[in-house]
Amino acid sequence: MHILVTNDDGVSAPGLLALTHAMRKVADKVTVLAPDHNWSASGHVKTLYRPLRVKEVMLADGTSAWASDGAPSDCVALACLGFIPEKIDMVISGINPNSNIGHDLTYSGTVTAAMEAAIGGIPGLAVSLDRPDGFSGVLDYEPAAEAARRIVHWLQQQADLPQDMILNINVPFGPLDEMKGFLLTRQGLRIYRDELVKRLDPRGKPYYWIGGEAPTGVEEPGTDYGVLSEGYISITPIQLDLTSKAMSTWLNGRGFDVNLSQLNSGKIF
Q: Is residue 98 part of a domain?
């Protein structure tokens, strides 16, 4: 198996190195292609109106990697479209130093890198560590890396692995033997506490920061946020089809499907 490792924190991030070491234990070949700087909260980006640069760099362990000035999703696209000549069997993104749960998935460069893999017909996994609020010490990524290794090892045994599979993995903070285990979850609800901060530059012109307190979430059983708060490793299968069946039912239940004929004929309700 050939695994591509990427992230959104930059090629020199310690979480990427820990994940790379873990993937080398289960893959025949591991290639690293990651952004050359931090792209946190970048979302799903595709760079179309400027050239992308790629250069060879050295990781902290002395091994070779590739760095691009593109976004995480650009890095995956570059690798899968031919920059990496060998066929890629799986893409692993991470390890992000903060959890990616609930609505975070639409912002996260970590998760959208895995989405880009699925668009290219390659299974993608995103791995994040649930760092406690206010923690300022050195993060230990090894438990999250080992959790990812175990998941990948299990996936390797499956002959019918879906090519469009995306797994969003969130690992609690702390030693692996203190965690309660792995659970299959659904996407939960993130609660943001953003605030707009307005300031003046030295010339008296206003500028703005989007600030506020750290987000929280709803501790609902079976959700990513809920099981993380209980000490479990959360594995959430996600998909690129954003169609809302519930909203379609709501609209049709109010006659919207019938009234579409009036819209199509140019009539107004």
A: yes
What domain count does the chain have? 1
Model pLDDT for residues 207-220, shown as the tens digit of each residue? 999 988 888 998 89
The CATH number of residue 38's host domain is: 3.40.1210.10
Alpha carbon distance 165, 44 (integer Å): 17
Q: Do residues 126 and 110 lie in contact, with contact meaning Cβ atoms separated by under 8 Å? A: yes
Instruction: Flag whether 262 is in a domain.
Output: no
38: helix, coil or strand?
A: coil
- What is the CA 253 to chain-centroid distance, rounded? 35
pLDDT for res 268: 60
| Residues 177/140, Cβ–Cβ less than 8 Å | no
What tokens were used for 241? 């089809």
The range of the structural domain enclosing residue 92 comes to 2-190+217-238
**Residue 129 CB neighbours (<10 A):** 26
CA distance 126 to 150: 14
Q: Confirm whether 139 is domain-assigned.
A: yes
Q: Tokens standing for 8?
A: 């959104």
Give Cα separations from 240 to 45, 160, 237 (angstroms). 15, 20, 11
In contact, 186 and 167? CB cutoff 8 Å: no
The answer to the question of residue 140 being in a domain is yes
> What confidence tier does 256 reach under pLDDT thresholds 50, 70, 90?
confident
Q: Over the stretch 143-196, which tens digit does the pLDDT of each residue have?
A: 999 999 999 999 999 989 998 999 999 999 999 999 999 999 999 999 999 999
